[in-house]
Design a protein that fits this description.
The complex is a heterodimer of chains A (188) and B (217). Chain A has 188 residues and is mainly alpha-helical. Chain A has five helices and two strands, in the order ββααααα. In chain A, strand 1 and strand 2 form a beta hairpin. Chain A is elongated. Chain B has 217 residues and is an alpha/beta fold. The chains are: A mainly alpha (188), B alpha/beta (217). At the A-B interface, loops of A face helix 5 and strand 12 of B.
Chain lengths: 188, 217
């Protein structure tokens, strides 16, 4: 079966809401970041192994990112928006619970730490930085006045990405901690 | 989340043309869908996606099948005894009608017309349908579309001067030469090449239009 049509060969793509846009459009940049973030999480889960206690949690996050991606690929208020699954701040509560659970096992943070340590921790830091880039692009999208969207169209997504960055930071530390690795503090 | 698997049974085959037929399946309790969506039909280790051609409120499920010599599932469906059990998952996909202020233009090649059949059999009307077929006998569902469409054009790709009342050429030829400049909602279902060519035409000639696609292979 051929999965390609070639309709994007001239640098445009179709949004979920049907518009034809350039592939470097703000919206495609934003959901492209999510795609990259999801792939980083895939690499992280591969490095962690199926038996790691955070696997189910990360898979849930990967699924959430698909929902967010669909939302970012849809112009708010368009007929297609009605087909989107609800995405509210409850998703962020899930991350907060996970952060708190991991954090209680970690030594107090005494300064900036260098991203790295075990491979799993390093991958979590890479995912965190991609998540921050996605967040920056969504901020740009939420400030775009040309689409007629309401100011809070992406509020739940912004909260989620902000919390997910925190989650990935703590997860990186947690991975090192479980492996007996000590955080390397930044020294001036 | 895992797909829900439903049991179904082949109830009947109804010929549509020389090499195309409707496969009618029983509708399991609890299965709901929106016109335009697909199911993934499963049998004997094979599985294949088919768009449903019936309206969501009908008592059976209808698939539009073109028998392809190299197509294992279409060959199976054309020969397996009526009454045989199958399973399926679904509904899949987002190729559903989205009402807007723009005029809808449905473009299909061959059995890619199935999702538009489902839409026309439900509440969707006043659309333009361009149906690309090889031979005049392949314009199945013509009666339905003449009733429901604002404009229904069969685009005949094989040269046959004896056939009147059809557009001679591909759907892309019709769009390029006959469709008035405007903003439309294009719904494309068919082979990848058609989807690519129509999408590029939309980019070049119908800026501001929406494009929704479903590859039918």
């Amino acid at each position: 079966m051929k999965i390609y049509t070639g309709s994007g060969d001239r640098g445009k793509t179709s949004l979920f809401s049907g518009e034809r846009v350039a592939k470097n459009n703000l919206r495609t940049e934003a959901y492209g970041d999510l795609d990259e973030l999801n792939s980083c999480l895939g690499a992280l889960t591969a490095a962690l192994g199926e038996s790691h206690q955070s696997i189910a949690e990360i898979r849930q996050i990967q699924s959430d990112l698909f929902h967010i991606g669909a939302r970012l690929a849809t112009t708010p208020g368009s007929p297609s928006a009605a087909a989107l699954d609800a995405f509210d701040e409850q998703k962020s509560r899930y991350l907060e619970t996970a952060i708190d659970r991991m954090d209680q096992h970690l030594p107090p943070l005494k300064g900036f730490i260098l991203p790295g340590g075990r491979m799993t921790a390093a991958l979590a830091h890479v995912a965190r930085t991609v998540c921050r880039r996605a967040e920056r692009h969504v901020v740009g999208l939420s400030e775009d006045k040309t689409t007629g969207q309401t100011p809070d169209a992406y509020q739940a997504v912004l909260v989620y990405l902000n919390r997910l960055s925190d989650y990935l930071f703590v997860l990186a530390r947690f991975c090192n901690h479980l492996a007996g690795e000590t955080d390397i503090l930044w020294s001036k | 989340m895992e797909d829900v698997i439903y049991d179904t049974k082949l109830l009947e085959r109804r010929p549509l043309s020389d090499n195309t037929f409707e496969a009618i399946f029983s509708r399991p309790a609890g299965f709901e869908f929106t016109a335009g969506q697909r199911i993934r039909l499963i049998h004997g280790g094979l599985e294949r996606d088919y768009s449903l051609a019936n309206a969501p409120d009908e008592a059976v499920l209808v698939l539009c099948i073109r028998q392809v010599a190299a197509g294992r599932f279409s060959t199976l469906l054309s020969s397996i005894p009526v009454g045989t059990g199958f399973t399926f998952s679904g509904p899949h996909g987002y190729f559903v009608f989205r009402a807007s202020a723009r005029s809808p233009v449905f473009v299909a090649t061959g059995t890619g017309v199935a999702p538009f059949t489902a839409m026309a059999r439900s509440s969707v009307s006043a659309f333009t349908l361009l149906h690309g077929v090889r031979q005049a006998g392949d314009c199945y569902y013509a009666t339905l579309f003449r009733t429901k469409a604002r404009r229904y054009v069969v685009c005949l790709s094989e040269e046959d001067p004896s056939v009147a009342g059809m557009f001679h050429g591909r759907v892309t030829d019709y769009i390029a030469s006959q469709l008035e400049p405007d903003r439309y909602d294009f719904y494309l279902c068919g082979r990848g090449e058609m989807i690519r060519d129509v999408t590029w035409l939309v980019d070049d000639r119908f800026p501001g239009s929406m494009v929704y696609t479903e590859i039918f292979y």
